[in-house]
Design goal:
This protein is of the alpha/beta class. It has one domain: Vaccinia Virus protein VP39 (Rossmann fold). Helix content is 39%, strand content 14%. The protein contains twelve helices and eight strands. It is globular. The relative contact order is 0.15.
Length: 280
């Protein structure tokens, strides 16, 4: 059985593992985007967060737009042909492989997520061009060694050549006690010079104090899972020792957004930092 066949078979089995009583970030994100792959717990959690942060749908749309621009930069200007996208989420328009392979059809992408419903939709992520390749791994970001040693990753990516590590809207679900900086460093240590790190991350830096306190109450409510917004300084630590690509750390609405049409949302409406950096 090929890796694609085994992934699809696992996807069918995965549906039986879905706990619909607990909100999951991928399904909540899907709800905010207007999707149908979510359950009551996800919608209730999404509504509770939206009550504190009413522009959350703008934020998720802008995060997705950042992904398109970042992948286009990496494929077109940086010449990257390999991507490791962890925290993939439920497939939607302009997935990483679609953006990269539209520019460089030979691009190779490995997706990773830990939500069974994402695994059940993996077929949409395995639609590579004939010249490139895609793979999907059902794994948790908190286990970087398991991801890096997975046979499907080693079959798809050549870790002796530069890789773009994509961690979009996922690190704010890793609490301090799970060593978020250590996780990123362990992943980067396995990648050669010339690789890139891309992270987007929620922040409360732009919120007034009352809203910050309300956000903290939601973030520490177990019904919504772990939520750890970080300050610009805390976010910047993920890029220690790396070379930030201009314009450096920015709100996702402003990162290389010169070509975007219409008025850009205010930083407070997105409240997500984004950056791309090169490993020297």
């Amino acid at each position: 059985m090929s890796s694609e066949e085994s992934t699809l078979a696992a996807g069918a089995e995965a549906l039986s593992r879905i706990d619909t009583s607990v909100a999951h970030p991928a399904r909540r994100y899907n709800y905010w985007l207007g999707g149908k792959d979510n359950f009551q717990a996800d919608r209730e959690s999404g509504d509770a967060i939206a009550a504190v942060f009413p522009s959350v749908r703008i934020a998720v749309l802008e995060n997705r737009a950042f992904l398109r621009r970042a992948v286009a930069y990496l494929a077109r200007e940086a010449g990257i042909r390999q991507f490791l996208d962890i925290g993939t989420g439920i497939p939607t328009a302009d997935n990483t492989h679609e953006v990269a392979q539209a520019i460089a059809p030979e691009s190779r992408i490995v997706y990773v997520d830990n939500d069974p419903i994402v695994l059940s939709h993996a077929r949409a992520l395995l639609t590579s061009t004939p010249h490139g390749a895609t793979a999907y791994i059902d794994a948790d970001l908190r286990e970087p060694e398991r991801i890096l040693s997975h046979p499907d990753l080693l079959e798809t990516l050549d870790l002796s050549q530069p890789v773009a590590l994509m961690l979009l809207a996922v690190m704010h679900f890793i609490e301090d006690e799970d060593d978020p900086y250590g996780i990123v460093n362990r992943l980067l240590d396995a990648l050669p010079s010339g690789s890139y790190l891309t992270i987007t991350h929620g922040t409360v830096d732009f919120m007034p104090e009352e809203q910050r306190q309300q956000g903290h109450a939601v973030a520490t409510n177990g019904r919504h899972g772990a939520l750890k917004p970080r300050t610009r300084e805390e976010y910047g630590r993920f890029f220690d020792g790396l070379q930030l690509v201009p314009p450096g750390i920015a709100v996702v609405t402003e990162w290389r957004a010169e070509g975007e049409s219409g008025e850009r949302p205010a930083p407070a409406d997105a409240a997500i930092f984004g950056a791309v950096a090169r490993k020297p």
